[in-house]
């Protein structure tokens, strides 16, 4: 009986230790995310998206897209924290994550408030960009691209350079998209795209 009691105590301690390690690992991963995406996921780097405030569904989908090789993972150096760490990419990072960790990370950043990037834009193009958005983008990107609940990502106030790079990935086929989005993007000319960038950047 005594041996059974000792076994139960040891088993409980093992479970507590495992849970503690799992939590620490997830916390470390979140801190690692912030070393590129900024404090609480608010990016100050023009080529790095702000992930704070996006829906958990959107963030999870993005992480699994890297994991499944349907989204290109560009190598990047660390911007904050220990910047002496070797450059990495999203594919290398997500390949180390469990489904539960991905869910926890998505939930953490989804609960943080989005903050629009302070950036320059062409004021003369904003009105045209709004019209293009309402005709070609509004159906999936609600409220001028600012509604996280549509699970399509936040465009309004996102860094223009990041959006430009994303568009290039869509256009060259290296980033997967659904057929409806493909049709809309194929219809955009360069002037319309520049107008869209101005419109999204103007929402500060």
Automatic annotation (TrEMBL):
UniProt xrefs under Pfam families: Cytochrom_C (PF00034)
N-terminal signal peptide: 1-22
Entries under SUPFAM superfamilies matching the protein: Cytochrome c (SSF46626)
Record domain Cytochrome c: where: 1-113, 124-204
Predominant localisation class: periplasm
Cross-referenced InterPro entries: Cyt_c-like_dom, Cyt_c-like_dom_sf, Cytochrome_c4-like, Cytochrome_c_Oxidase_Subunit
Protein's cellular compartments: Periplasm
Tagged with keyword Zinc: no
Alphabetically ordered keywords of this record: Electron transport, Heme, Iron, Metal-binding, Periplasm, Signal, Transport
PANTHER family named among the record's database cross-references: CBB3-TYPE CYTOCHROME C OXIDASE SUBUNIT FIXP, CYTOCHROME C4
Protein name stated in the entry: Cytochrome c biogenesis protein CcmH
Organism annotation: Thalassotalea insulae
